[in-house]
Every structure is written in structure tokens, then in C-alpha cells.
Amino acid sequence: MSFSGMVKDELSKHVGSARHCRIAETAAILSACGRMEQYHNGSERLRVQTENEAVVRKCFTLLRKTFNIETEIAIRENSHLKRGNVYFIEISDQAQIQAVLQGTKLSVNGNAGGTLNLNNSLVIQQNCCKRAFIRGAFLSSGSISDPEKGYHFEIVCPKEDKAQQLQDIIRSFNIDAKIVLRKKSYVVYVKEGAQIVDMLAIMEANVALMNLENIRILKEMRNSVNRKVNCETANINKTVNAAVKQMEDIKLIEQTVGFQSLNEGLAEIAELRLQYPEATLKELGMMLSPQVGKSGVNHRLRKLSALADELRENKEELL
Predict the structure, then answer these.
(1) Which of 9, 49, 61, 15 is nearest to 158 (CA)?
(2) Which three-class secondary structure state does DSSP give residue 254?
(3) Alpha helices (H) in 77-159, listed in sequence order
């Protein structure tokens, strides 16, 4: 099962104890997956359709616990590209339909095929109800990427107003949710890893949250180790390159003017560098008598380098 599937499976088993929270979550699911349809005789039915078993299972539970509606789940094979099953919940009793619509404060949009809209903010007035609404929206039409590969949380909305409404609810928790148009849908998304952890906390997906946090910690540790290794490698390369340049400079001085032309301090460090090409500045300084610090050794080697550069320039002028 994918990470997104595991999150949804966990959320499908979470049923709020407060009726107002269950109403908010029901409203989110019906807003995403529900619609009002008319029979030929003029009577209506409330229909929920989804390809996700976790969604239909959660909707069935919410209707039973919140509105005392016992209905059946219909299953049909999805003929489109043979992508598994399609699940349906249908309510035909007019009194039950009215109870659900009045309780969730959903209105029917007749101009959009009978889709349902939440136009009354009373359902999501409390923070706990906002959490439940986000949970229902994600369960119905959301996804989260595998954290081993990257961080991406999104909920797909069919209309811009629904996306903006969901964005406002998420932003009320100080989450920087953004909206992007993808084909004909509006996608509310969060990209930052820490904020996706916060989203899981908001939806009360505690097991998924711990799994994501563990993966984030391991990834950060690996990245930290890699940065340190890269830094050490760069320092080693820098040290080696500097030592090679110093050896070239000292050999040039030895071959042209000789160490006897140097003062005692420069001659001593030149001979030590030739004898110990892999030694660090600190180690070279410890070998001197009296001992000299890193800055002192570096100062002498710089003087040798400057002398070598001067010899090279004089050689070029003679040529």
C-alpha cells in the first residue's frame, strides 16, 4: 500500500466523538463526492460515488452514526481502463435526504449537475470542525507523496470556489496552502515537509505523522552526513592542492637559487615541507625548533611562494 493509501486507511477509521465534527466531515465528503439526482418520475436521490473503498466506508459510518441512516453500499466494476471498482451510496428517502442536507448545511447546485456546495460557515465554525472538514476533503480527493521521494500534499477540487474555501480553512491553521490549476481542476497543495507534518496532525493521522517524522529525521541525518563528508573532501582537496603548489615552489627555489640564499626560518620550513609533503601546517609547526603556530608556518610558506613567483617572472623576462 502506498503512503497516501496508508494515511487514508488510518483516517477512514477515525470517527469523531462530537456530532458537530462528524457533520463537518460528512459535509466535506458529500461536497467532493456527492450529488443530487432526479429519477424520471421527478423524485430525487442523494448519491455518493467514489473509487476509494476507504471513502465509501467512512461515509457509510458517518451517515449511520450522525443521521441514523442505514443504507447499502453498491459496488460496480469500473469499465474505464479496468481501474478497479466504483462504490456507491444512495439515499432515496426524501426525509433522510432533507435531514442530511439541513444538518450539513449543503446546498444543491442545479447548474452543475446537482453537485453540493457548503455555503454556510456555521458547520466549520470551530477549530475541531475545521480539522474534520479537512480530513473529509483529503479522504475524498487528496493525496500525499511518498516522503522517501519528496514532500507534496494536495487536495483536488472541481471548482475554484471550493478550492478557495478549503485554502482558507487550511490557512486558518497557519499552513501556507496554495492553489494551482491542473487541467480542469483546482489543486490545493502544501510542499514544505514540516507543514505536511502539521497537516497530518490537523487531520489526526497520528500513525502516519510518526512515520513521516521518522523518515524526515533519517533524511536530514543522511543529508547532514553527506554535507559533512563533502565539506571534508573539499578541505582535503584544498589542502592537497596547496601542498602540491608549495612543493613545486620550494623545488623551483632549490633548483635556481638554492636554500642557502634563504634565511634560517624559510630554509628550515622548506626542507621540512620537502621531507613531509603530507604533513599539515600544525604538524610542520610542531617539528620546528622553537615550535611555530599554523599562522606562522603559513606566513613562511607564503613568503616562499612569493619568491617562487618572482623567480618565474624573472625567468620569463630573460626568455
Answers:
(1) 49
(2) helix
(3) 94-104, 127-141
| Helices 193-203 and 206-256, packing angle to 10 deg | 170
Residues 113 and 244 in one domain: no
The answer to whether the peptide bond before residue 290 is cis (omega within 30 degrees of 0) is: yes
Q: Residues 120, 267: one domain? A: no
Give tens-digit pLDDT for 7-44: 999 999 988 889 999 999 999 999 999 998 887 777 78
At what angle are helices 53-67 and 94-104 packed, to 10 degrees?
100
Q: What is the pLDDT of residues 37-72, one digit of tens each?
A: 887 777 788 989 998 888 999 999 999 999 999 887
Which is it for the CA torsion 213, 215, 221, 227, positive or negative? Answer: negative
Total domains present in the chain: 2
Q: Which residues, in sequence order, are CB contacts of 313 under 8 Å at separation 6+?
A: none
Residue owning grid cell 521518522: 214
